Amino acid sequence: MAFLELQRLSKRFGDVVAVDGLDLSVEQGEFVSLLGPSGCGKTTTLQMIAGFEDPTGGEIRIAGRDMANVRANRRGIGIVFQSYALFPHMTVEQNVGFGLEMRKVPAGERAGRVAEALELVRLGGLAGRYPRALSGGQQQRVALARALVIKPDLLLLDEPLSNLDAKLREEMQIELRNIQQSTGVTTVLVTHDQTEAMALSDRIAVMHRGHIVQISTPFEAYEFPKSDFVSTFLGKTNLVAAAVEGRDGDMLRLRAGDVALKAPAGEGAEGDRVLLSIRPEKIRFADPAEAVIRGHVKTGVFLGNQWLFQIDSPLGELLVVHQNAGRAEARAGEEVGLAWEGDQVRVLSGDDHG
Length: 354
Ligand code: ATP
Fold this sequence. Notes:
CATH topology of the largest domain: Rossmann fold
Largest sheet: 6 strands, mixed
Bound molecules: adenosine-5'-triphosphate
Order of helices and strands: EEEHEEEHHHEHEHEEHHEEEEEEEEEE
Number of helices: 8
């Protein structure tokens, strides 16, 4: 049995179904992110695991034990919130030691464990400061130390990095991942930031309307999204409506308007209308002999590490194409050929409820 098990977990607030029969298993030591848009039920799920909200239905098990009648402070859980929620009138040391004091850990042992937790988050020198004299990033580390000092069996993180600026957030992502790996604590992160989920997680659970529509490694989720929802939520993609014409071995033959396309067989039988996903970085400029389609460049924008082109194409929508940085291979108004490998096209089920 997995370390954390959620079975058919539900939560209603009056008429609103916030969490709708959600199943999730998290292995010991694993880092899993709940990723989804605002209102999909991520925070409510985390609050139920923590014991701050009672489920309307379903079960939560931690290490095999049913949590139905276990109070929040008895669940062995450390939590970090977006707001940090530090006590303003307490020093860093007192903030971090608070949970140990509540658990009646003797003062001598407490001091050692607080020092250890502060070292872990690299705040050793700031034990005597008050929160108001700390930067946002430092406050965030105090909150993390406070959650870790109790040596929790499970660490819950609710958008812990979203108050930090982009550069600091990136640094903290790497640090958080290192700390999680060095402590081995089973972790569930709530985020709406796909880059953050990808950088931190062993597996990502993509949520939509109260349940999980896909759970997989970051690579699988990005490369093999099951639905248009997952495909567009995890990065940019081009969605193309097509009809299945037949099958040649492992590949489907498809048609989108006048354009013949190929995609790996899996979903879709002859006559079906399907949605295809083609990631912008899989498309390249190509000479006429090689091109799958021709189009006109509408815009080309240089972003430093890559070029981003929008192309008027016979596939309907404006096609987005990313190219590695270097000299621009095309200019606005120019007619270009575009090519991609058929095995890079994904056929989506289009079913959000996966
Ligand atoms: P966000 O990223 O904006 O925090 P979320 O995915 O965490 O969103 P939740 O906060 O879990 O989503 O909310 C899920 C749904 O439940 C939303 O429609 C929200 O309005 C509703 N909801 C959450 N808490 C309550 C509450 N205490 N009373 C009534 N409705 C609630």
